[in-house]
Design brief:
Order of helices and strands: EHEHEHEHHEHEHHE
Structural class: alpha/beta
Helix content: 40-55%
Strand order of the largest sheet: 3-2-1-4-5-6-7
Number of helices: 8
Bound molecules: nicotinamide-adenine-dinucleotide
Number of strands: 7
């Protein structure tokens, strides 16, 4: 029996086989969780429904996280079908493409700033408002995905770095707010992985190369590795962990200098 047997999980963010959310769904399914999925647009629906077959998902719902009515509808349906929920995974991020290249001060616009923060940070607490009543009886776990650019400057990551900083603060404030209800809130800070969202960041391939060179493990991480860490963080095995940002990045964040022999 897997360590998530009997857990009911909502996973938001499956868009392709490369998505981090796909790695998380694979790991959680393997550990026995029952999985509900959402799709952002009608265009993505068929693909997400196809993935859902692999995980035997019975609940696959539309959800654009910028729309409160859609968030409410998703949790209403979950309440109807499941009565309660144990885990919500928020694997969602977005900033307009023009924000993610070039000089930060020049590239950042009022509109891009607002969109990046709304979709990438606010939406996590927006989900928590509806998840809380469905988790109150048994407790639960909320997990989001962040990146080192929240804490240190990464070229071209620009306004997404600010949105992720807001998301990480969100994790701490939400953990404090929801802790008394037995709900844990955490983030995984993943190293760079080639996905649809990541390809929006200019020179992403170079970021992958730099990371692999400098990380203690001398390679990049995979969605399977992030998925395994996510499954653990959301399981009862991690019952003492809340408000935490867990790095799954081959140790890259612990290093301060490029290998000097390559300089
Ligand atoms: P991805 O493109 O596969 O997934 C991004 C998901 O966000 C997609 O499913 C997309 O549909 C969804 N999304 C965007 N706007 C939305 C909206 N308005 N409503 C609902 N869904 C919306 O890319 P990914 O890399 O798997 O990204 C998942 C998360 O991981 C993001 O938060 C990203 O910032 C984070 N992350 C990615 C990396 C990386 O290098 N790939 C590293 C660290 C953190």
């Amino acid at each position: 029996m897997g360590f998530l047997a009997g857990k009911k999980v909502l996973i938001i963010g499956v868009a392709s086989k490369l998505s981090i959310a796909t790695g998380i769904a694979d790991a959680m399914h393997r550990e026995g969780a029952e999985i509900a999925l959402t799709y952002q647009t009608e265009k993505l629906k068929k693909r997400v429904v196809d993935f859902g077959k692999k995980w035997n998902s019975q609940l696959i719902l539309p959800l654009d996280v910028s729309d409160d009515a859609q968030i409410e509808a998703v949790f209403e349906e979950i309440s109807k079908q499941w009565g309660s929920i144990d885990i919500v995974v928020h694997s969602v991020g977005y900033a307009p493409a023009h924000e993610l290249e070039g000089d930060y001060v020049d590239a950042t616009t009022r509109e891009g700033f607002a969109i990046a923060h709304d979709i990438s940070a606010y939406s996590f607490v927006a989900l928590a408002k509806y998840a809380r009543p469905l988790m109150k009886e048994k407790g639960g776990s909320l997990l989001t995905l962040t990146y080192l650019g929240a804490q240190q400057v990464v070229p071209n990551y620009n306004v997404m770095g600010l949105a992720k900083a807001s998301l990480e603060a969100n994790v701490r404030y939400m953990a404090n707010s929801l802790g008394a209800d037995g709900i844990r809130v955490n983030a995984i800070s993943a190293g760079p992985i080639r996905t649809l969202a990541a390809s929006g960041v200019k020179n992403f391939r170079k970021m992958l190369n730099e990371t692999a060179k400098q990380a203690p493990l001398k390679r990049n991480v995979t969605i399977e590795e992030v998925g395994n860490a996510a499954a653990f963080m959301c399981s009862d095995l991690a019952s003492g962990i809340s408000g935490e940002i867990l790095f799954v990045d081959g140790g890259f964040n612990t290093t301060a200098m490029h290998p000097l022999d390559d300089a």
